[in-house]
Amino acid sequence: ESQGHENTIFCVSNRKFKSATSTPTDIDALCQGFGTQAICGLEGGCSPSPRGGANLLIPFLITPRKTQLLSDEFIIKWNRVPDVSQYIVKLRGPDGVIWEDEVSDVQIVYPGTPPLIPNVKYSIVIETDTGVSSVDEGISGLAFSILSAEDTEKIEAEKAELIETDLPDELKEYALAYLYNRHQLMVEGISILENLKQRENQNASVYRLLGDFYRKIHLNLHAVDAYTKAVEIAELEVNIEDQVMAKVALADAYISLGNSAQALTTLIEAKGLYNALAQREAEIVEEINRKISDLQE
């Protein structure tokens, strides 16, 4: 944009970064290290989630799951269950099943017929020919809804404003994913981050935000995979701050899965790394210590 005009983007922790006459080239530089990812429990960050997305023997829903959507034509995906040849997919509205189909694959496109009503809660149930159902996951609050035309227009305006900034393309995509996060557009946000994963230059911040998306919709095994990759990248780059952030997030995902032993080990590793830093934030030290103490009780 014109010289002297500032672009304001929100980081994951709800802090802001700005780019003006000079253009930052790194996500962490923009958000100043820890700004890219809130420690769970701080600044309204992530909170413990149910053990969703963990039982590989049921066809748990992957998408759309606990989200809003921009369109009523979308892909439905679920977990593949061993020894299952057919899945029955049911779309439920307030008055019961309004559409269903049977497939052998683990995804299907909802064609938009019957059309879905904006701001109405819908849910999807997957049943196998062996009598197992996605409902067996036991997680509530996974319904989705379609945004109204008015809300969609507002989001598109925000998106257009973001695209007009002088940020590099990769940072625009990252910021767009976070914009979708703020509007509960989980499918769109995850799609952007999954595409960013394919880039030659891998970035730990992308994987951490992707893990946050998955935790938010209670796909905890997916979150563990994303956070683990974030740790690996941070270790290769010898980036201690990124390692700490990724390990703390990973520990929370382990807690959600009921794996307290692995969570404790990961938090102790994070504490050791963080204590080695010359500059430390007291609230982060306290938060890590609290989590360790809770697991040791």
Rg is: 20 Å
| Percent of residues in β-strands | 15-25%
- Please outline the major beta sheet: 3 strands, antiparallel
Q: Which regions are unreliable across 5 or more consecutive residues at pLDDT < 50? A: 1-25, 29-39, 41-45
Q: Assembly type of the shown chains?
A: single chain
Query: Could you give the distance between the termini?
Result: 54 Å
Instruction: Quickly count the helices.
Output: 9
Principal-axes geometry comes out as globular
The whole-number mean of residue pLDDT values reads 86
Spell out the helices and strands N to C.
EEHEEEEEEEEHHHHHHHH
Task: Explain what this protein looks like in three dimensions.
It is built from 9 helices and 10 strands. With 297 residues, the chain is α+β, with helices and mostly antiparallel strands. Strands 3-5-8 form a 3-stranded antiparallel beta sheet, with no helix packed on it. It has a 3-stranded antiparallel beta sheet with strand order 7-6-9, with no helix packed on it. Strands 1-2 form a two-stranded antiparallel sheet. Helix 4 runs antiparallel to helix 5. The protein is globular and about 60 Å long. The N and C termini lie far apart (54 Å). 40% of the residues are buried.
List keywords for this structure.
297 residues; single chain; 10 strands; 3-stranded antiparallel β-sheet; alpha+beta
